[in-house]
Design a protein that fits this description.
single chain, 6-stranded mixed sheet, 3-stranded mixed sheet, 12 helices, globular
Length: 261
């Protein structure tokens, strides 16, 4: 049972643990409370020893990254802003590491746009199914933030350094089909067929030995590799904190917020 007021929803069905980000009125934009609920849900999922963990979002978006209104609400004090940013980005990075260290296969059902740091939740999945209307976009250079959520810590290893840099320099919008071509997604389906694709994957995973899947994932995400990713994510967080309180970043946040008001 998902607690009332929680910003994620969970369900265990046929051995598959589902987590939905659930701030649909804000496009599942990230705030510390949502991230805390997500991390608690991942712990709960681990205790259930599922065949697989599936992460998705409620509403029209998967997640649009850090909620700009949350940053602006703490912008009256540079110290408060940095403290808020450290809680948000640090919590997001811990959630990404939680997913990478999860013992069972992790799947993502990307129902809609995924932008900013939320992309890291997608990159932490072993298999990604995207709806045709979904896309990935960084947006950092429009605001003045440094990249977080694995844009520099995880994405270059997935698609190559040059492509990862170009996408961020030019703030490219990567549609679902291009995401599949790049290797960010494994499947693209109409939204109405997204759940059927995830069900097919979890059914196939469930027919194999769970102990084999766990051993495979533990070998790939061993302590050495997780430690390297943690180091890269810490570097992302440090640079995010360096930039977040600069006057030009505050101005960028305000302008970005007005565009999306």
């Amino acid at each position: 049972m998902t607690p009332s007021g929680a910003k994620v929803e969970t369900a265990l069905r046929d051995g598959v643990f589902r987590i939905w980000l659930s701030r649909p009125e804000r496009h599942n934009a990230l705030v510390p409370e949502l991230i805390a609920d997500l991390r608690a849900a991942i712990v709960k999922a681990g205790e259930a020893e599922p065949v697989a963990l599936v992460l998705s979002g409620r509403g029209h978006s998967f997640s649009t990254g850090g909620d700009i209104s949350g940053f602006l609400a703490h912008a009256g004090s540079l110290k408060e802003l940095r403290t808020y940013a450290e809680e948000l980005v640090g919590g997001l990075h811990d959630a990404i590491l939680d997913l990478l260290a999860f013992p069972a296969p992790v799947l993502a059902a990307v129902n809609g746009p995924v932008t900013g740091g939320s992309t890291g939740l997608m990159l932490a999945a072993d298999m990604v199914a995207m709806s045709e209307r979904a896309f990935v976009q960084p947006y950092y250079c429009e605001v003045g933030f440094a990249p977080d959520g694995g844009w520099t810590a995880l994405l270059p290893d997935r698609i190559g350094t040059a492509a990862a840099l170009r996408i961020q320099y030019l703030n490219e919008r990567i549609g679902a089909e291009k995401a599949r071509a790049l290797g960010i997604a494994d499947s693209v389906r109409p939204l109405s067929q997204l759940e059927a694709e995830i069900d097919a994957w979890t059914s196939a995973i469930g027919q194999g030995f769970g102990q084999t899947h766990k051993a495979t994932r533990a070998n790939v995400w061993d302590a050495e590799r997780l430690g390297a990713v943690r180091h890269r994510l810490d570097r992302e967080k440090d640079r995010f904190l360096d930039l977040v309180a600069r006057p030009e970043t505050l101005s960028g946040m305000k302008d970005f917020g007005k565009k999306r008001a």
